[in-house]
Write a structure and sequence with these properties.
It is a single chain. This protein is of the alpha/beta class. The chain has one domain: Lysozyme-like (3-Layer(aba) Sandwich), CATH 3.40.80. Helices cover 27% and strands 19% of the residues. The protein has four helices and seven strands, in the order E-E-H-E-E-E-E-H-E-H-H. It has helices at residues 22-31, 90-106, 128-131, 133-139, and strands spanning 6-11, 14-15, 41-43, 49-51, 69-74, 77-78, 111-114. A five-stranded mixed beta sheet has the order 4-3-5-1-7, covered by helices on one side. Strand 3 (41-43) and strand 4 (49-51) form a beta hairpin. The chain is globular, with a radius of gyration of 14 Å. 37% of the residues are buried.
Length: 140
């Protein structure tokens, strides 16, 4: 098993309310020449959590940070004009909280981050450190 030091949260950069499946994202990533979907978990609008790339395999979600991280992506992240927006539904918020808590328990040395901490992108369109401060403080 690989060593996990970071859990990195992403958005799919799809318009608010538009349902996209993990299989669709997998195809986008395959079209880019990747071997599989880059994320380990995808959270749908209704809060369903779907496994993507197996956690045992290195992801493809943050350049230079994949070796020791897990990538979690929620569907959404932009408004109808493609501008960054926190579009998480209540169901996504609840599912993300549970998933992140479970991952932090399973990987007690991991820290929690937004993609925007490692890139000039807005992704995941909100401040992960502020949103999940209670989890960060509890598990760091």
């Amino acid at each position: 098993m690989r060593e996990i030091n970071k859990i990195i949260l992403h958005c799919s950069a799809t318009p608010e309310g538009r349902h996209v499946t993990a299989e669709t994202i997998r195809q986008w990533h395959l079209d880019r020449g990747w071997s599989d979907i880059g994320y380990h978990f995808v959270v749908y609008l209704d809060g369903t959590v779907v496994s993507g790339r197996p956690v045992s395999r290195v992801g493809a979600h943050v350049k230079g940070r994949n070796k020791d991280s897990i990538g979690v992506c929620y569907i959404g992240g932009v408004d109808e004009n493609g501008k960054p927006k926190d579009t998480r539904t209540l169901e996504q918020m609840q599912a993300l909280e549970l998933l992140l808590e479970d991952l932090l328990k399973e990987y007690p040395h991991a820290t929690l981050h937004g993609h925007n901490e490692f890139s000039s992108k807005a992704c995941p369109s909100f401040n992960v450190r502020e949103e999940y401060l209670y989890l960060i403080e509890c598990y760091e």
